[in-house]
Amino acid sequence: MHEETIFQQYKPLLFSIAYNMLGTVMDAEDCVQEAFLRWHKACVMDEQGAIRSPKAYLSAIVTNICIDQLRLAKHKHEEYIGVWLPEPVVAANDHVEMAETLSLAFVRLLTNLSPIERAVFLLRQAFDYDYDEIARIVGKSEGNCRQIVHRAQQHLASQRPQQPIPREQHRKLMEEFVQAAVSGNMEGLLKLLAEDIVMYADGGGKVRATLCPVYGRDKVLRGLLGFSSKAPAGLTWRISQVNGRPGMLFTLHEAVFAVLTLEIVDGRVQEIDIIRNPDKLQHIELSAG
């Protein structure tokens, strides 16, 4: 099979690994391209590992590039202004495997893990790699990898988003939420928000956004009503596919203004994620969704 054909077969998986690790679309795409160049060079040099098992070889390259990038970028996250959220992947992208693990809330949670913990956890829990495969990819023993996954599970257990609800139910609740928020319907919002809801807003210091998470129904409600009252004239919204599930795409003057997603548990909104940082929205095409 031709190298390009083989690479295209694994490209969605590779992008998904990189995106979940890094949380940025462009960096994930660059990572996948770099992996292809390295793998192609290895094939030309007749490296048997690259030829016999391209999936394992490419996965190892992508994973280790991501680990290196995360270590180098640690100070950027520490210096980031306000709440950091991943870049949204809007609509169905032909090389993105849309899965529950691509939710903004889940990728945000993964930042609580070290780069090596994130890699091992994702390869095992999200992509179902065997422990012996993971051990070879990250250069650890199988026993060590098992311990890493166990620790990561414990660390994320109380914070991990629930299993996604059916798409149509999510869409219906999303529509009710946005209509209530945009119209300033306090009673409608109260019915939808969980008491222990949390809201994250990422402005990156570039645009106005809350610098810290907002906890509790009353505070979140005030924040949403404040946003509604200050929304610029001409702001429009529509439901789009955001990280594999229904989300909201807000536009203003033919440009993306914000992306909003909800985590819904037992019919109530448990988490709101709002991305306003223009650097994280510039890759989105308005034809998407």
Shape: elongated
Strand order of the largest sheet: 2-1-6-5-4-3
How large is the share of residues in beta strands?
Answer: 15-25%
Cα-atom Rg, whole angstroms?
Answer: 20 Å
Q: Give the CATH level 1 class of the largest domain.
A: Mainly Alpha
GO molecular function: DNA binding; sigma factor activity
Domain RNA polymerase sigma factor 70 region 4 type: 105-156
Pfam family, one: Sigma70_r4_2
Domain RNA polymerase sigma-70 region: 6-72
Question: What features would you describe in this structure?
Answer:
This protein has a 6-stranded mixed beta sheet with strand order 2-1-6-5-4-3. With 289 residues, it is α+β, with helices and mostly antiparallel strands. Residues 97-101 have low confidence and may be disordered. It folds into 2 domains: 3-156, PhyR, sigma-like (SL) domain (Butyryl-CoA Dehydrogenase, subunit A, domain 3), CATH 1.20.140; 167-280, Nuclear Transport Factor 2, Chain: A, CATH 3.10.450.50. The two termini are 34 Å apart. It has 12 helices and 6 strands. It has helices spanning 3-22, 25-44, 48-52, 54-72, 74-79, 104-110, 115-126, 131-138, 142-156, 167-183, 186-192, 217-230; strands at residues 193-202, 214-215, 236-242, 245-252, 255-265, 268-275.
